[in-house]
Every structure is written in structure tokens, then in C-alpha cells.
Design a protein that fits this description.
Chain lengths: ~130, ~350
């Protein structure tokens, strides 16, 4: 009985562990609530209309292919600014900094179709190209 | 007896981890500081020095009994620092602000409350910041060239000095090249042209921005850190980065171990946080300065320490690129990253703190 209980507990923990890799949060962007999906292992956070498994499902995901540090000019590369925010402007997005109730901030990159990607993800995907 | 042995065995791993001779010898006693200050995001503005300095300043204030919030405005500090730099050629340019000088400025003059700087903050000024920087640089370059022309004229007599209007036109044309970009609307360009023209006419026009960002201070007064003294340690020219890493680490430890909300800020190469093993800090003998091989130098505060999983210490770097952890290769939570000591300090060229 105890063995079955432990097995069940292990199964529950493994499922919850697997789910923990993908998280959803809500942030306020331009005064509107936006649901964001984060895949920690993929270093990726995008807004909910996007499907992480479908790279072309929204502009924010398509932008990851264009993200590149080499696209920045020398002035920007030597800057201490958030590199993902600089990439965002370079690839046609608009940077908006979200604030939570504790005044913590994070920059997101918005696109014409209404999709958003975390600027940290833009840097991660563009850091070596 | 049986229960006693089991209890001892249960506690033993924790005791070993946190009080082992190795951990103690390395000075890795766990520390976590500045827990209730927010995580910032600089956005597109290259003002890390101001964000790092205001965090050191606010943590110190809080540790000495000040009510926090209000927090200090980093954008205001950046503007004020830039204006001060602009008046003193000995100071660094705006692109890479000197963290210890920015911190010293806050100690001597105080900071402006974040909430009182109207609606201006880093995302709204971000789009203007690079243009502002380029304007200041162009203006400084112009004055530098003008000095050389005047020197040459004094020596040889055949250089012709320009009229004030000609000077103005020359700088305006330089600025126009910089500010005309696809992202700038005609209305913006008009505003910036007017700003450039005024700022060239008189130095005091630049204080216009200072007035905007400092307006809140008129009502609320400046935030002060009474009794604080700015301290810093920077590598000597051409110093052996690897050999000096333990010295920098000891300075950071000293600031973390100090009471009263003391946290250190470091000047370092941020590339290390996304590329473990990177040794990015190099001495550039031509420029006679340390620089980061892969990009720009950066400044952040260090707010924690713990024993590392593979020996040595790990330090908690609080970056100012938001709460995201997507851009880092190390353990991270809400914009704070645990970086092994050797990785961090072999990419660091300076430390500043308050005491």
C-alpha cells in the first residue's frame, strides 16, 4: 500500500515537474493585461496567441529568427543597454517596459500583430549571430 | 539514542555545507541583501552606472533607517551625471558612465525621488537617449576640434576662426546626421533640432533637461545618505586580471559583510553571464583602458553570496535588464543571477561601495 502511495506521489511530482518548465504569467503592457507563456528550458517567453511549438505562429516568434547582435552598430554593441531591447528596435519591434505591483520591471518587444516577446529571449536567440 | 543518532545524521549534511572548513576558508558564508528593492530594466538607455549607483545608494539609505520607498530615480541621476560630465572634460563620456563618480555625486548632492520625476522614466527616454548622447558627443567633438583650430591658428596664423553662426551650423549639421533615423518622425526631428540649436547657443540650455528631471526634487526634496562615504577600487593600468580577481572578490566580500544595507557595485563584462567560461576583460594598450572584448562594459550590484556547488563561492548579481532570466546561462531567479566567483571576478575591473 505504502509502495503504491509512493509510486503515485512520484508520478504526480514528475508530472508537476514537467509542467513547471512551461509557465504562464500575466503582465500589463500599454495598460492592457497580456498573458505570457514561458518555456524556461528554451529561454523563451512569448505572449499567448503565439504557440511555442509553431515558430511561425506569430510575429514575435518569427522575430527570433531575425534577432542578431551583429545587426547592431558599433555604438550599440558597446552600449550597456539591455541588448534584447536594442535588438527589438532593430528588427521592427517596439520596446515597452512592464511593471508589477512591487515596481519590478521587464522589457518586452511588441509587434504589429499584437504579439510580444521577452527582450531577454531576443538576446538569447540573437547572442551568437 | 537511536532517534538522537538519526537526528544528528539528518542535520549533518546541512552543517557540513554551511560550516565546512572549505566554505569558511573561502568566505562563503551565505548572505542575501537588498531583498525589498525592485528589479530594474534600463531598456535601450545605456545608463547602467546610474542604475547601479542608485541601488547602492537606496540600499544604504534603507539600512540606515530611511523609509524606502521613495526610491531614487536612476534616469534623473543619469541626466545629472551627464550634464556634469559635459561640463568637465576630465570626466568620462556619457556612453560609459563612471559608477564610482555617479555614486559620489549621489552622496554629495542626493538623489531625486523616482515617483516625482513626472512621467519620465527609462522606457520613455530610451528612444531619445541615444540621440541625446550623440548630440553631447558631437558637441564635445566640435569644441575639441575648435580648440585645435584655435591652437593651430595661434601657432601658424593661417587657420581662420569661424563665426558663432558658422560654428552653430557646423554642429547642427553633425547633429542632423545623427538624429535623422528611420525611427524619428519629422515632429521629433524638429524638437531635436530646436534643442540642439539652443544647447549650442548656451551651455545653460542643457540644464533645461536637468530642470525637467529634477522638478520633483523641488517639491519633495532630495533623498540623502547622511554620513555615507563613497569608496572604490579599480584595477591599475594593465593589471593582471586573473591575479587580481581575489583582490576584487575580497572588496566585494568586505562590502557584503558590512552592516547597514551596504552592497557593492561592480564594473564588469556581462557576456560572462550568458557564456560560461568567457574571459572577456582585456587591457587595450592603445586606448589605455580595460574593455570588454565581446561588447560594452556593464555595471551591476552584487546582493548575495553562497557556497558554490563545485567549491568556491557564487555571487548573486542583480542585473538591470529586467526580471527575465531568459538571457542567462547560470541559475537565475527574477533577474538575479548566481555566478561563480572566478567567472565573475576575472571579468571585473572595479568595485565601488558606501561606508
Amino acid at each position: 500500500m505504502i509502495r503504491w502511495g509512493l509510486a503515485l506521489l512520484g508520478l504526480v511530482l514528475s508530472i508537476s515537474g514537467a509542467r513547471a518548465a512551461v509557465e504562464t504569467t500575466e503582465v500589463m503592457l500599454n495598460g492592457k493585461p497580456v498573458r505570457m507563456i514561458s518555456d524556461v528550458e528554451k529561454h523563451l517567453t512569448v505572449s499567448e496567441p503565439c504557440s511555442i511549438g509553431k515558430p511561425k505562429s506569430c510575429e514575435a516568434l518569427r522575430a527570433l529568427e531575425r534577432a542578431s547582435m551583429k545587426a547592431l552598430d558599433e555604438y550599440q554593441r558597446k552600449s550597456s543597454a539591455n541588448p534584447g531591447a536594442m535588438i527589438c528596435s532593430k528588427i521592427g519591434g517596439k520596446v515597452v517596459i512592464a511593471r508589477d505591483a512591487e515596481q519590478n520591471q521587464n522589457a518586452y518587444c511588441g509587434f504589429a500583430d499584437g504579439s510580444w516577446v521577452d527582450c531577454g529571449s531576443l538576446f538569447w536567440f540573437g547572442r551568437n549571430k | 539514542m537511536h532517534h538522537f543518532i538519526r537526528a544528528v545524521l539528518g542535520v549533518l549534511p546541512i552543517v557540513l555545507v554551511f560550516s565546512s572548513p572549505a566554505a569558511r576558508a573561502a568566505g562563503c558564508d551565505p548572505v542575501l541583501k537588498a531583498r525589498n528593492l525592485p528589479i530594474y530594466d534600463q531598456g535601450e538607455s545605456s545608463t547602467c552606472y546610474a542604475f547601479a549607483a542608485t541601488q547602492v545608494f537606496d540600499s544604504w539609505r534603507q539600512g540606515h533607517g530611511a523609509k524606502v520607498p521613495p526610491l531614487s530615480s536612476a534616469p534623473e541621476a543619469a541626466f545629472r551625471y551627464t550634464l556634469a560630465c559635459e561640463r568637465d572634460a576630465k570626466w568620462d563620456d556619457v556612453q560609459s558612465g563612471n559608477t564610482s563618480r555617479a555614486l559620489g555625486m549621489l552622496v554629495s548632492e542626493g538623489s531625486c525621488p523616482y515617483a516625482s520625476t513626472h512621467d519620465f522614466n527609462q522606457d520613455q527616454i530610451g528612444a531619445r537617449w541615444s540621440q541625446f548622447e550623440r548630440l553631447v558627443k558631437a558637441r564635445r567633438e566640435y569644441f575639441y576640434q575648435q580648440e585645435r583650430i584655435d591652437e593651430g591658428k595661434a601657432k601658424s596664423g593661417w587657420f581662420s576662426s569661424k563665426t558663432p553662426r558658422e560654428k552653430q551650423q557646423q554642429v547642427l549639421s553633425e547633429v542632423a546626421c545623427d538624429v535623422v533615423s528611420p525611427n524619428l518622425s519629422p515632429a521629433d526631428l524638429a524638437v531635436w533640432s530646436e534643442f540642439a540649436e539652443k544647447s549650442i547657443d548656451t551651455r545653460d540650455t542643457l540644464t533645461f533637461l536637468k530642470e525637467i528631471f529634477g522638478a520633483g526634487c523641488k517639491n519633495g526634496g532630495r533623498l540623502k545618505a547622511a554620513g555615507a562615504n563613497e569608496r572604490h577600487f579599480y584595477l591599475d593600468n594593465g593589471a593582471d586580471v586573473r591575479a587580481m580577481a581575489p583582490v576584487l572578490q575580497a572588496k566585494v566580500d568586505s562590502a557584503l559583510n558590512r552592516g547597514g544595507g551596504s552592497i557593492p557595485l561592480i564594473s564588469y563584462c556581462p557576456h560572462v553571464m550568458s557564456a560560461p567560461g568567457a574571459r572577456d576583460l582585456k587591457w587595450n594598450s592603445r586606448k589605455a583602458e580595460f574593455e570588454c572584448f565581446s561588447g560594452g562594459s556593464h555595471a551591476s550590484v552584487v546582493v548575495g553570496r553562497r557556497p558554490g556547488a563545485r567549491g568556491g563561492c557564487e555571487y548573486l548579481v542583480r542585473n538591470t535588464w529586467g526580471t527575465s532570466c531568459n538571457q542567462y546561462a547560470y541559475p537565475c531567479r527574477a533577474g538575479e543571477i548566481w555566478v561563480p566567483a572566478n567567472e565573475l571576478f576575472e571579468n571585473t575591473d572595479g568595485v565601488a561601495w558606501l561606508e
